[in-house]
Amino acid sequence: MEDVVWVKNLVKRYDDVVALDHFSLEIAQGEIFGLLGPNGSGKTTAINCILQLLSYDKGEIKLFGQPMTQTSYDLKRRIGVVPQNVAVFESLTVRENIDYFCGLYVTDKHERKRLVDEALEFVGLEDYERSRPKKLSGGLLRRLNIACGIAHKPQLVFFDEPTVAVDPQSRASILEGIMRMNAQGTTVVYTSHYMEEVEQICTRIMIMDKGQTLACGSNEELKELVHAGEKITIEAEVSQAALMRIQALDHVMAARVHKGRLEVTCENAEHNVADVLAELAKAKIRPGRIWAEPPTLQDVFLEITGRELRD
After folding, report:
1. Phi then psi for 296, rounded to 5 degrees?
2. Model confidence pLDDT, tens digit, residues 278-292
3. Same domain flag for 285 and 148
4. pTM for the full model?
5. Which of 16, 18, 161, 220 has the lowest tally of Cβ within 10 angstroms?
6. Pair 166, 88 in one domain
């Protein structure tokens, strides 16, 4: 099966700054592909080059198996873009906004009306179709932004930070909508600063920095690349002697007592919690509440890039 997105050795320079350094990317049909990187890592530059909104110095780009150029209008009709910054007309109503953006791709008025109706229903804005954007809450405005980008039923959609500064209910609605689109056959490229969103919806994730790919794979595959390990937290007053014995356990990478809690980081193994509790029992220490957490995508990102996502 042909990749929906295929990028090979893409190079983009801004004077002496290399924004993309032989960047390559392959996205198969039906994926929700997460693109992660610190600010300035090259994510937006890569997307803009793929969409031919930016020129580039070197490389190849194919969408749906065909070379993508500035005049590839047939390809562009198959693509939707939901930008991070809301891009709608304040002077138009909700329906008029969706109709305008859909009209860039669909000229038949009857077909366009059907698509606008479906987009309104899809994002849950039927009751607001006559409202103007300034009357909408932040979450509803984000939903309008999405409707404008997907009303023409694109086969490939780029979502750039679609849930920034929205309430939890709207965020859940947006993510559910993206997953419904994907279930209907749409391929999605998704960028976000919210790790839990990427873990929740993405089938594959790429971590990039300084214009290069650092790692790519499923959520589980990425977690296997790092040594973040399992985190165990136990409410307990632990003596120094007991702490030293826990630190000496086979799979323990680090252990400390902090604010009345024992915090232990372990390599992934089957009996980590049992081994730690056994040492506490030997020291006649009765534990309180216990938490055991596998490594998160944030742990992976920090170990691979050395930075927090919002750096």
Report:
1. -100, 170
2. 999 999 999 999 999
3. no
4. 0.82
5. 16
6. yes
